[in-house]
Fold:
Amino acid sequence: MAKRRDQIRMTDEEVWKLIEERRSLQVATLNRDGSPHLTTLWFAVVDGKIVFETYTKSQKIVNLERDPRIAVLVEAGTGYDELRGVSIRGTAEIVKDPERVHVIAGAVMGRNHPGVPKDEVEALARRMAAKRSGVIVHPAKIVSWDHRKLAGIGL
Structure:
């Protein structure tokens, strides 16, 4: 009999489909004392990697400069039988070059404001790049679950 963990694991295609569907990313970094710092923010996928931008002086960046370990989560569903999620543990690459931050900010803003004209998104991303840093998540381990796969086999 298959383990429940194996029954609910998502395929790579399902993982990336869920990531593309979701708008919010939960991000965990480590504070100086080792406790988790957990936030939620918008993100995008650029060149097959999850990326986000945040103020350079934010606690996330301060933490990642000290310790690049990061965990991120996307999830969906409200009832147990419909819960889906992707948890990624890895390292963060901090991007401070304004041109690269502009690309990341543009991807995040464009993804989350689809009705805004591209030139307005570009202008906003350019302004954001002045005070923000980008983060690229490099996965070490990806864990996924889709409880909808348990339908008919009993919880």
In short: The chain has a mean pLDDT of 93. Residues 98-112 form the longest helix (15 residues). The first strand starts at residue 24 and ends at 30.
